[in-house]
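Could you join me in thinking about how sequence relates to backbone shape in a protein? We need material for that, and I hope you will provide a protein of your own picking. Once you have written the record down, we can walk along the chain together:

…
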Amino acid sequence: MKNYIKFLIIFFLSVSQVFLLIAAINWWVDPYGIFHTEKHNPQKPIWMSKQLRLAKAYKLKALKPKGIVMGTSSSQLGIDPDHPGWDENTQPRYNIGLPGANPYETLRYFQHSQEISQPKQILIGLNYVVFNLFFPLSDDFNESHMVVSSEGTLKNHSHDNLSLTLLSLSATKASQKKLFYRGNGTHFLNGRAIPQENASESRNSRLALMNAATKFVPMLLMPPPGHRFCLYDETESNYNFLYLRKILKLAKENRSDVRLFIQPTHVYLLEVLRILGMEKGYEKWQKELINVVEDINSKYSESRPFPLWNFGGYNSVTMTEVPPSEAANRSMLWYWDLGHYNKMLGDLIQDRIFNFHQPGRLVPEDFGTRINSINIDLHHNTQKIKQRQYMKTYPNDIKELTERVNASKKNIRPFNCNQLATAIQ
């Protein structure tokens, strides 16, 4: 009996030592960048775990930013939170944009940030596709990363801090990857992603952009497994607009300065919507965004109204020519691909939003329109004229794109959004 007890004691001590060793290694490597504080150098390249949702949630707790950028990967790649147009007293700032973040995730990270540091300036990028009622919640999103519940109740995170960041298998794998990483970095310290490019490889930009436009249909616009898109259900409702409304209401109550903008995707993606007969839905989405923003502004009329900017649609930037066949390897000026733009374009967006003027840097006159219920119909009419001009200018591109989209949609079964309630169940 005594030998049995002695064995158990030795066994548990050994196991405890192994766990302590794992925790010590993960603390030392610090794969999520939350244990070892350093001087905040926003433009310093760092390695960041592919578990971005966990890493950024904990980075918010460590940094306690007073200015944040929110949205999907478009915001994460293109919007630099250290643009000089921000209020100079809003420091530090952090980009918490996440790939494929739908409005619910954006709400939860907004609640998380508000509980931690109540940021006073917020820039929110808006994407049409994530308002699809069938757009999935990301696999690596976890409610336990948040310091508050969705109802706003504070949660105790001491256990989660220990188990997720020091003792979990995912943390150990992240430490291993960080130790053997040999690149310059995956992100800047301010949260903006570093574009990953291989300059030694020749890239057929035209083919890549055409393929991206057609893959956009079954992978993002109508994501698997069902390949469906519904902006509204049979009751003309979409809970994603309610999540946006909650964000704006909480921001008003905390006296935050929020600027919203529609992302400047390349017009190829708008042409895809036109070919699919979905351009009316895109216009309706913009009007619904206006309704939400203006309703919140009217209810809090004593405060500065939140502006809504549209950088999408057809303008001199988004209509940037796709490289022709004879120069297929030529890169595009503003875009990494059809949905993601570079920092140069992100700076122009912020120049317009913050009314900032950088010597030698001009924002095209037609890039960025502040939309509201008064001017939206005129704006859409102007867009239709530009769209027709674009079709006349690039008929070969339109022909090839139409053929590709029509071939892609053959594998997608028609769906009636009026039957949405039973389909989701």
